[in-house]
């Protein structure tokens, strides 16, 4: 049986509810977000999925989600942080620049505004995962991160997802680990119990 890594987006936050950009800024989980994280925790228990170790970004919304999902020992990692949105942090989402025709991310559009390139984000998240894999032999790990950070990782790994796919709150990517290689096995919505096997 291959080692497993489950990477999950945090639960709903106040800024999610208000349709504001979060990025490196933070806002607390809403009551809905708390319930989502608890539901995700129940999903893993129902599937008899337990974690040897857990990791979250250093942002409150990710760490709070993790603590509601599992009681496994955990560590915060800066490399799992959300994308930096520059001057758009905490602003209304409709102020963000529009994707270029045919694009499925902001690419480098935020760089002139003090933000990150999605490729840099994907590289940062991937490097952080590799550093964890270099120092542990754990069979089952959970990481709680963020929507754009997850999308950056998917782009870095050159994985093609459905064109209209977005990471909803508490969405999970299940990866198999062979040596240091990551293989996406499933996209899971623990709130609806839907799984897309890949």
UniProtKB/TrEMBL annotation:
One MF annotation (Gene Ontology) recorded for this entry: alpha-ribazole phosphatase activity
UniProt entry keywords in alphabetical sequence: Hydrolase
GO BP: any one term: regulation of pentose-phosphate shunt
A Pfam family reported for this protein in Swiss-Prot or TrEMBL: His_Phos_1
Annotated transmembrane regions: none
Matching InterPro entries: His_Pase_superF_clade-1, His_PPase_superfam, PG/BPGM_mutase_AS, Phosphoglycerate_Mutase
Superkingdom field: Bacteria
Entry's EC annotation: 3.1.3.73
Positions that bind substrate: 9-16, 61
Gene Ontology terms: cellular component: cytosol
Name of protein: Phosphoglycerate mutase
Organism: Streptococcus ferus
